[in-house]
Amino acid sequence: MAPILETKNLTMQFGGLTAVDNINFNVNSGEIVALIGPNGAGKTTFFNCVTGVYTPSSGDVLISTDGKAQQRINGLKPNKVTEKGLARTFQNIRLFQNMTVLENVMIGRHTKLKSGLFGAIFHPKSTLEEEEKVIQDSYDILVEVGLEKFVNELAKNLPYGAQRRLEIARAMATEPALLLLDEPAAGMNPHETKELDEMILKIRNTNDISILLIEHDMSLVMSISEKIFVVDYGKLIAKGTPDEIKNNPEVIKAYLGDVSDA
Q: What is the architecture of the domain spanning 1-85+176-262?
């Protein structure tokens, strides 16, 4: 079976700077995979190449979702990448702050709607039923991430950790085959990070999806990842299990330091 996501010799250049340098990478069905490295190593640029924000300078981004043969998605717009089954969050929270928690998740469902302009204008029974299902499905996602008590709160009024969860919930609303999380634990306290750890595992196990995360919190990375890729100056310098990575001298030198207690 082909990987959910595979990159072959992926390269992204900005003028004379090579931010992603010839990276070969894969995420298999059902895996939780981490991409780590120092600040400026090229991690978010890699995400941006995969999700359509950037068109890679060279190489291939290949996906295989819903059991279909691999498709090359280089150059697809982000909304088209989402329709293919990839959804992401961002380092900086990008919620609709003046909309409710439920409305934020409902927006994530728009790629699944079938009603066109006719439905929007005339509201036939099928459109009303579809709208009711969107509300129910969105609420169910909030229950899954533990935010149901905030359903009618404005997003801007949520605690920071809850806002992070809401962004994940909105991505989940697109029913992705692969969920990409860009530093989901950034700014969280230890208690919030532990809850996030449990939530990511629950999402993977309940929904049978793959998860790829960029993260600096090594305790989180080591506790939930089955495979870790390490980049430095845009190059892939190591890949392996958490035990293999934290004992890799090149990785320790480049980034980790002593993680023997992680």
A: 3-Layer(aba) Sandwich (3.40)
